[in-house]
Amino acid sequence: MANITENTGHETTTGLDHRKLLIWAFLGSECMFFGSLIATYLVYYGQGTPGTPTPLQVLDIPTTSTSTFVLLMSSFMMVMSYNAISKGNVKNFRIWIMCTAILGATFLGFQFYEFREFAVHYGLTPRTNLFGTTFFTTTGFHGAHVTVGVIWLVSLFLYSYRGDLTKDHGLMVDIAALYWHFVDVVWIVIFTLVYLIPVGVSGGT
Amino acid sequence: MASSHEESTHPTPAVYAKIAVTLALITAAEVAILYIDSLRGLIIPIFVVMSTIKFAMVAMFYMHLKFDNKLFTLFFVSGLALATGVIFALLILFGALGEGRYGSPEVVTDTIAHGSDAHSSDAHSNDHGRKGTSAKAETTASHDSSTTSDHAYTKAAVTSKDLSAASTMTIEIGTKGDQLFFDQETMSGKAGDHITVKLVNSAGAQQHNWVLVPAGPARLEIATAGMIAATTGWIPSDDRIVAHTDLINPGESGEVTFQVPSEGKYEFVCTFPGHSFTMFGAFEITQ
């Protein structure tokens, strides 16, 4: 019965590695987590206190599009690093995973700039109005996930220097990659629902 | 389960690169569409379709769901379906899918007084003694204490426009700064009196209102119904509402004049979504 689809050290009743099942169950639950945050943002959209910054005034589509592009490309780097390690090419794995981490950090830099711009230039903080509260909560939790991802990727990069990361340990990279891609797809949804649609419908830009 | 090893079926780097280019192109197209005025009306379906394509490409190819065991897909799609359900349920529940919802960021705020009221709470206690007899007469007039007759009675009192502002007293109620609490847990009014309740919103960012409703389950029922009444300042259309102020912006005040019901138990509450859980109190009717 040893139909193991990944490089596991043991047999399971499903034939699947439970660590991989776990990450998928976790990502499923994360969908609901972000779904609730995005829904709250949408529900309170347009319910801002008069006289405080509105989404149309502060959202900067060109900048956010650039950071979206950066995050999408990091997903490509990630899949390339998984591709390298599954072929046993540790050298290329290191290059690709470091590129992924750097692009992730770049995305965080964009977000830091955006948050700072909102707070300093427009005076928009989580306390200002319902838009501020829901916007910073939603995008802030996503940023926190990216931060965890960057730390995870750098850890794998450093781990590879112990010489323990070989073709047989592809699952370790696979799980980190799934998390990273998930953070990317969540941003695809946030970029559309939090930025593009509200600005587009209101005739922004 | 057949052990079809997926490494052989996984896409090649060339396929990954093509997907990356497609993802970038779709994102560029999305931004471009924002600048095309003629597509304004179709923008929601266009963006939903485009981002769904991006989402699906990453999930199927980069996350290998297309090639992996279907159990993984089941786990993920279950969560995804629930999340989508939560988003739609909340949007419908809070009326956020309504017409023109995203086009009008301003909240309805009509007649709001800016705090130039001569009445004070001193007048309150004086009035109590003075109006004894008339209140007595009102009480005897309403002989049935069932809720239905109370509605009819109070509704009539509120709609009648002959309330002379000069003869009413004003009770002021405020908020505990930015906390979601009124600054009083109980208020009182003499049965049958015409009184004015002035809500002074001392919050820095929150909007509030003051709604007088029958005590008991009615408070939460009305507050829940109010969650979708965004266009009327979160005040639902409900016959049980005795009186209400408009939605008051932070730092401003507003008032409502009404006739105190002859009997029954009443409560006041703020029906701004979420506030009703802490912002309420008892309204006592003195005889």
Quick structural summary:
The complex is a heterodimer of chains A (205) and B (287). Chain A has helices spanning 18-43, 55-58, 61-86, 90-121, 130-159, 170-201.
List key phrases describing it.
heterodimer, A: 205 residues, mainly alpha, Four Helix Bundle (Hemerythrin (Met), subunit A), B: alpha/beta, Immunoglobulin-like, 3-stranded mixed β-sheet
Structure, described:
The complex is a heterodimer of chains A (205) and B (287). In chain A, α1 runs antiparallel to α5, α1 runs parallel beside α6 and α4 (90-121) runs antiparallel to α5 (130-159). Chain A has helices spanning 18-43, 55-58, 61-86, 90-121, 130-159, 170-201. Chain A has one domain: Cytochrome c oxidase, subunit III, four-helix bundle (Four Helix Bundle (Hemerythrin (Met), subunit A), Up-down Bundle), CATH 1.20.120.80. Chain A is built from six helices and no strands. Chain B is elongated. The model of chain B is unreliable at 1-8 and 99-166 (pLDDT under 50). In chain B, α2 packs antiparallel against α3. Chain B contains eight helices and eight strands; from the N terminus they run αααααααββββαββββ. With 287 residues, chain B is of the alpha/beta class. Chains A and B meet through α1, α3 and α6 of A and α2, α3 and α4 of B.
